């Protein structure tokens, strides 16, 4: 056999083995999924709240309807948005 034929045959075997391994190995999938879920939770905990998140938290702290309307006016005026100089 020539070198190119050996490489092509080896590549085909590796692809077939990879397909069968990943399609039949559900334990690895769930293990990887739980690992990435942990990483996602950690990243979410370190995330800086967006402007919309801060506005919503501010509005949710209102005590009554009048306080909510006052806070809504403040948000509409740009209380949480960056001011451009």
Describe, in plain words, how this protein is organized in 3D.
The chain is mostly helical. It folds into 2 domains: 1-47; 48-80, no CATH class. It contains 4 helices and no strands. Helix 3 runs antiparallel to helix 4. It is rod-shaped and about 80 Å long.
Main pleated sheet = none
Number of helices: 4
User: H/E series, N to C?
Assistant: HHHH
Which strand-content bin applies to the residues?
under 5%
Rg from Cα: 27 Å
Number of spatially distinct domains:
2
Give unreliable regions as ranges. Answer: none
Distance between the termini: 73 Å
Can you count the beta strands?
0
SSE-based structural type: mainly alpha
Average predicted confidence as pLDDT: 76
Fraction of residues in helices?
over 70%
**What global shape is seen?**
rod-shaped
Quick synopsis:
This protein has about 80 residues and is mostly helical. It has four helices and no strands. The protein has two domains: about 1-45; about 50-80, no CATH class.
How do the helices and strands line up, and which of them pair or pack?
Blueprint: H1 3-24, H2 26-46, H3 51-60, H4 65-76
Helix pairs in contact: 3-4
Keywords:
76% helix, 2 domains, mainly alpha, rod-shaped, 85 residues
